[in-house]
Amino acid sequence: MIPSRLSLSKRRLLVSLCAAAALPGIAHAQTAPAATEWGWPTPYAKVSDKSIAWLKEKNWWPIQVAFQAPWSGQNTVNIVMDRMGLMAQRGVEAKWTAFASGPAINEVLISGRYQAGSGGNFPFTTLVDRKIPVKAIAIQSPNLLHALVVPKDSPLKTIKDLKGQSPPATIGLVTGSSAEFYFQMSAQINGIEIGKDVILKNMPPGEQMSLPKGITGIVAWDPTPTMMTEERKNGRIIDTIFPYNIYEGQFYLRQELVDNVPDVAQAFSDAFAEATLWTRLNPEKAAALMGEDPNLKNYTKEILLQQVRAYNNFYKPTHIFPDAEFYGQVNEPIFKWLHEYKRITRPLTAADFAAAVDDRFMRTTFGKLGWAVPKKPPFLPEAWQGKPNQPPYPPYVNSSSTTTPQSFPEVGDLTKTWAFGGKTYQP
């Protein structure tokens, strides 16, 4: 752990530097099966002609994938899958389109115009609540920084200082996003009353970044907070998501793909894992690919690389496994709040979340790689005493609490020989 006297922003810069120097565990000389340099076994498995015919009949060729460009970690995996042709390697035509937020992605998934997508915990809950037929097959961007950012000259020191504001403080955020849930939960735990102490204003990420006049602060997900504190230097962080919500995003498919073309669902799972590995080996190249996206043209190379290292390369790559039981419990407080405040129509439970997850494909992916399915998310300390459905949480590993990326593989991580970056590892 790094000294507590360092600011959150300085910690986050150190994360980038340390992640760049992090190396996997001890390597052995035995030769691994044929594989790419980044550890994906070859040759690639191709989807069947029958599945392709079914997709074409549905007019789902190419498959349309919706992702969120300004969402760190999520955009990296999606952009790498797209630009590196990882679905094409498996015989699938797929087209990726960037959207500004989770609610916007929900709209195109619900309409059926898109068949695959990425969503944060709050937007994904909306899909579950509305019984949209989707299945999450991978976890992405765990522990993504969400933060309350105020102007540098603001008198506020902590979120508790919002109590008793008159007139009420105005907080800008994307309504219906994970940022709103985090702030609602933090406000509740810290005794802040929405509508009395603070007023929430719907505001897109681009506008948030400028901290417009009349705004007390903004609540945003990375990279917005990091850009404001490290590059623009127009704000400072006074509260973060980590005690209140163990955040996760999902990569999901429409149920029809799972039911009718499971080999295509498997191809997405495999490509997702391969993109994670390619990025792990090639962070600079991944950041360069991100920089080519029109939606990221205002992001510097430095911030893109920092985000790649902080969210894609910081944890063991096994963090992508969709642990339905754990994340179902983590999301129960979200479900409870959303129902109490009439943001969802029914009282969802951990079981409802688990029913919207299908881990069979990632289990098969891990089997191909020779990875052991983790018993719990790798960012939880061995002796962690927290309860997933009972925030606030005791500390756990995230890119704002430590600069040391997790090594992989370690003892227990492998079930068979695996090679990565020119080195071979044994279980």
The number of distinct helices, counting runs of at least 4 residues, comes to 15
Task: Summarize model confidence as the mean pLDDT.
Answer: 90
Kindly report the CATH topology of the largest domain.
Answer: D-Maltodextrin-Binding Protein, domain 2
Structural class label = alpha/beta
Using only C-alpha atoms, the radius of gyration works out to 21 Å
Outline: globular
Largest β-sheet summary: 5 strands, mixed
CATH superfamily membership of the largest domain: Periplasmic binding protein-like II
Total domain modules: 2
Q: So, CATH architecture of the largest domain?
A: 3-Layer(aba) Sandwich
Order of helices and strands: HHEHEHEHEEEHEHEHEEHHHHHHHEE
Please bin the fraction of helical residues: 25-40%
Taking the alpha carbons of the first and last residues, their distance comes to 28 Å
Q: For the largest beta sheet, what order do the strands appear in spatially?
A: 2-1-3-10-4
Q: How many beta strands in the DSSP annotation?
A: 12
- Estimate the strand proportion: 5-15%
The CATH C-level class name of the largest domain: Alpha Beta
